[in-house]
Amino acid sequence: xxxxxxxxxxxxxxxxxxxxxxxxxxxxxxxxxxxxxxxxxxxxxxxxxxxxxxxxxxxxxxxxxxxxxxxxxxxxxxxxxxxxxxxxxxxxxxxxxxxxxxxxxxxxxxxxxxxxxxxxxxxxxxxxxxxxxxxxxxxxxxxxxxxxxxxxxxxxxxxxxxxxxxxxxxxxxxxxx
Length: 177
Hints:
- The strands form two sheets. The chain has a five-stranded mixed beta sheet with strand order 6-5-4-1-7. Strands 2-3 form a two-stranded antiparallel sheet.
- Residues 1-13, 164-168 and 171-177 have low confidence and may be disordered.
- It is elongated, with a radius of gyration of 18 Å.
- By secondary structure, it is of the alpha+beta class.
- The protein starts with a helix and ends with a strand.
- The protein has one domain (2-35, 45-174).
- Helices cover 34% and strands 24% of the residues.
- Strand 5, helix 3 and strand 6 form a beta-alpha-beta unit.
């Protein structure tokens, strides 16, 4: 039984904000390079805007997935967030979001990205959304023995639709090259 308790504690350990930021920055650099540029290196400008949106559920109890059996949470221990970064270069924009959740299915992501595209003008093929795989997050997608918490799913889609990243603005940053 000692092993099970240790494994449960390890599952609750979350990546650091710095680790997530470094990973996002590396991915962003690769994606911006793939976007290409029409201007010379001396004229190239990269603008960026960031947002952190609280996605902690407002109603309890709530279904929590990631375990073999269905379970619910009756209290909030840590706040959950969606972190968004938007880049713009040569008039083209791209967005990336990391969501504190176990997983999100493609149908949910398609809906959230379509809403974000309407709000922000960023095409859905220039958006990337990922979950950081937290086993104590609400059930936005069914997993193992836990069904989808439909109320939270709708709430989450509304939160990651790009509102805050649009409001945060995209700031100018000169490319060092």
